[in-house]
Amino acid sequence: MTVPMTIARWGHTASILGNGHVLVAGGMNSIVVNDVELYDPFNETWTVTIPMIHRRYHHAACVLSNGKVLITGGSTGGGSNSLNSAELYDLSTGRWTMTGTMNYGRAAHTATILTNGKVLVTGGNSVSSVLNSAELYDPSTGTWTVTGSMNSRRYYHTATLLSNGKVLVTGGNSGNALNSTDLYDPSTGTWSVTNSMNAGRYYHTASILLTGNVLVASGFGNNMYLNSSELYDVSTGIWTMTGNMNTARMIHTASILPSGNILVAGGYGSSGILNGVEIFNPSTRLWTTVDSMSTSRYYHTATPLSTGRILITGGRDSSNTAELY
Length: 325
Fold this sequence. Notes:
The structure is a single chain. The termini are close together. The protein is built from no helices and 29 strands. A four-stranded antiparallel β-sheet has the order 1-2-3-4, with no helix packed on it. A four-stranded antiparallel β-sheet has the order 5-6-7-8, with no helix packed on it. It is an all-beta fold. It is globular. The model has no long low-confidence stretch (mean pLDDT 96). It has strands spanning 13-16, 22-25, 36-40, 45-49, 60-63, 69-72, 86-90, 95-99, 110-113, 119-122, 134-138, 143-147, 158-161, 167-170, 181-185, 190-194, 205-208, 214-221, 224-233, 238-242, 253-256, 262-265, 268-269, 272-273, 277-281, 286-290, 301-304, 310-313, 322-324. 0% of the residues lie in helices and 41% in strands.
């Protein structure tokens, strides 16, 4: 364990800053919050900083090439419409400023930084409908531009930047668990359908391996928690089933370790909230159970630190605890 956060939260974001500190923003406890705090991994301390302008959870966060943190969308809870607002955190001043408004309100979406520095936002839930729309944020102008739409509407999906500069979107929920996958080509602004996964799933994770291939793990599909995992070969576009996890789970986290192995932590399964942790070895394609977390959690975050450790924060139900792997 490390020092707990100032407030309990889940559905928040955690972003690694240029100075090695971690910015934790927003989330939900008994209410949706705009509270923000900074973790110093060198001294293992938390510091409260200036809150976001808007309260939000199930938002997305990414660190831009200029070092600022872009927060997009999310929900205010209580059945309210999803947010189309976006704001920027400036490490040099510690302040938040509003930036251009997205064309669509969305929560449970993805935000991916492209090789050209722009940010691709995909899908999400607008409360009244599930979206297949995508848009691009240009940090140099602070504006959003609608780009090609995905072939499937989806939220609680994943988006992964591939070594060839394209973005792979997998699974998600559209009233049912999707096994479809879409590829975005930034050079044309268009989507193409690639081979489907072997299992429909959402609330899963997708991790890029040192080989450039993508590991998709677990999730929920066909009215059951999944323990299956599969690999996407970026050179062929083919999915291959690989070793099963020891515990079926969803809403977990997946982090790449310095060794290239993948660490999966927590989540929710048939027995309830989980504290179990497993590691995937790409060489053997097997999962191994390791020491459990001190706290069971889901809807938490896992952030690889510059020290080589993984910082786990928060999670449902309303935990303010943090721990290090």
